[in-house]
Design goal:
The protein is of the alpha/beta class. The chain has one domain: Spore Coat Polysaccharide Biosynthesis Protein SpsA, Chain A, CATH 3.90.550.10. The protein is 25% helix and 19% strand. It contains five helices and seven strands, in the order E-H-E-E-H-E-H-E-E-H-H-E. A seven-stranded mixed beta sheet has the order 3-2-1-4-6-5-7, with helices on both faces. Helix 2 packs antiparallel against helix 4. The protein starts with 6 loop residues before the first strand and ends in an 18-residue tail after the last strand.
Length: 187
């Protein structure tokens, strides 16, 4: 990725973590940091600024990122993505890497590979399924997200299906692993 490119990052950290049974953002990463510290640190090496979308009152460690609080709970990642994209646009970024907080093997290699694709609204990794929370989004999509949410949509797929989306085919890789249950935790 060119260092002259304006790309922010949005970390979605405010999910309910129902299957995990505890807050994923503050779970320990194998390197000793919390998951949110790991993801922010990794993204900060490629993206500026970094925004963390957190739940109201969600405790987080001190982060080298701007923390924005969800105004509405329980509506899924689409609304939080829109909030992050709007903040990234206001900061002057044209694109943002949108990431889940529960990706312990996320790598800058993925960001660099996706960033090479331009001229589309969304760039997603695909390894037999779409990974909506490990992709690059145009920040101008915030308005489209508002329209979708107002129409009752909650899924990231609804956004990807209504704009120009490019899928980068990847072999199955640990980089795209999410932690969804205690059995998934690395260590």
């Amino acid at each position: 990725m060119s260092m002259t490119e304006s790309m922010a990052a949005v970390v979605l950290a405010g999910g309910a973590s129902r299957r995990m049974g505890r807050d994923k953002a503050t779970m320990a990463h194998p390197d000793g940091q919390t998951m949110v510290e790991f993801v922010v640190s990794l993204l900060k090496s490629r993206c500026e600024p970094v925004f963390v979308i957190a739940a109201p009152g969600q405790p987080l460690p001190t982060l080298d990122a701007e923390v924005l609080r969800d105004e509405v709970r329980g509506v899924g990642p689409l609304l939080a993505t829109g909030r992050g994209l709007r903040a990234a646009a206001a900061a002057g970024a044209d694109r943002a890497f949108v990431s889940a907080v529960d990706m312990p093997f996320l790598s800058t290699d993925l960001i660099d590979e996706l960033a090479a694709f331009r001229g589309v609204d969304i760039v997603l990794p695909w390894d037999g399924r779409d990974h909506y929370l490990a992709g690059i989004y145009r920040t101008s999509l915030a308005d489209q997200i508002d329209v979708l949410v107002a129409a009752g949509e909650r899924s990231m797929r609804a956004l990807a299906d209504t704009v120009v989306t490019h899928r980068v085919v990847l072999p199955e890789t640990r980089m795209l692993t999410n932690l969804n249950a205690q059995a998934d935790t690395p260590g």
